[in-house]
Design goal:
308 residues, alpha/beta, Arc Repressor Mutant, subunit A, D-Maltodextrin-Binding Protein, domain 2, two-stranded antiparallel ribbon, 10 helices, DNA-binding transcription factor activity, transcription, DNA-binding, LysR_HTH_N
Length: 308
């Protein structure tokens, strides 16, 4: 039997009001609509629920039993739905976010600080891991969302760009490139390069740029952690290409960064599982990351290093 929630509510209202007309006024239906709804319910249950007289409506024994049980069930349903709404709207709980080391070190701290000020009851838990781990943790539901470097076509992910930034050249202050305002990518031909390994989401983009411009790369070191680039370059082992988010340079270093032309950018994206709703708390933190990305973009507008 297919009983509608409306039918059950109409019947309970009639049982309380002992009148079709008063019940109709209480729930905004005509008397005939109320009567028709009760008749349908009686037909579906196969028992008479009401005795109708010219003055009042009287519940049968079956009607009394059903009305009593339905009142409790409908009250419980109302409470359950209200509680579900509160859970969906609450700004509390734990939100797990994953990002690579560079993003975690240079973008996420501001996001956590912002979250702590605005949503003190939300625990922002960060997992800083390599890009591939971040993507897999999103896909497996181990985190609520992640911030990744453009992963390319991914039918199972919902992605949104929050920041586009250029790749820059890193070299010592006494390197010939240090005297230039900008350095063409072609000048990297045969230069000794220190690059991050393929655990980094940036490495495939750097490789693609070198290949597109037919540059023969002389890669002398591949390192896992972005912070290792700075001492390696300062030691004179080679030069490097790094994303702008890896700045600032270590204090007291003898390093400099230069624009690479033509400008090649990477896109940082918020990513979550496709067709899966974020909790209200997770959505709030998603918005904070989006806002911090916009703030960083605005702060770079006047800096010549980021001019296209």
């Amino acid at each position: 039997m297919n009983y509608s929630l409306r039918q059950l509510k109409v019947f309970v209202t009639v049982a309380r009001a002992r009148s079709f007309s008063r019940a109709g006024e209480m729930i905004g239906l005509s008397q005939s609509a109320v009567s028709h709804s009760v008749k349908e319910l009686e037909h579906q249950t196969g028992v008479r629920l009401l005795d109708r007289t010219t003055r009042e409506v009287v519940l049968t024994e079956a009607g009394q039993q059903l009305a009593g049980r339905l009142e409790r069930l409908l009250d419980e349903l109302t409470i359950t739905l209200r509680d579900a709404g509160r859970v969906g709207q609450q700004m509390s709980g734990t939100v797990k976010v994953a990002a690579s080391q560079t993003i975690s070190a240079h973008l996420i701290p501001q996001c956590i600080a912002h979250s702590n000020r605005r949503y003190p009851d939300i625990d922002f838990v960060l997992h800083d891991r390599p890009q591939q781990w971040v993507l897999e943790s999103i896909r497996h539901g181990e985190v609520d969302f992640g911030i990744v470097i453009d992963p390319g076509p991914a039918a199972d992910l919902q992605c949104e760009v929050v920041l586009a930034e250029p790749f820059l050249l890193l070299c010592r202050e006494d390197h010939p490139f240090a005297g230039l305002t900008e350095v063409p990518w072609q000048a990297l031909q045969d230069e000794r390069l220190i690059l991050q390994d393929y655990a980094s989401g940036s490495r495939p983009l750097i490789d693609a740029a070198l290949s597109r411009l037919a540059i023969r790369a002389n890669i002398v070191q591949e390192i896992g952690h972005p912070a290792t680039l700075f001492p390696m370059v300062e030691s004179g082992i080679g030069i490097s290409v790094l994303p702008a988010l890896a700045l600032p340079l270590p204090q007291g270093s003898h390093l400099t960064v230069k624009r690479l032309t033509p400008v090649m950018e990477r896109q940082l994206m918020l990513a979550c599982r496709k067709n899966r709703s974020l909790s209200t708390a997770a959505q709030a933190l998603w918005e904070i990351v989006r806002k911090e990305g916009a703030n960083l973009t605005a702060a770079r507008v006047e800096d010549p290093l980021y001019q296209r």
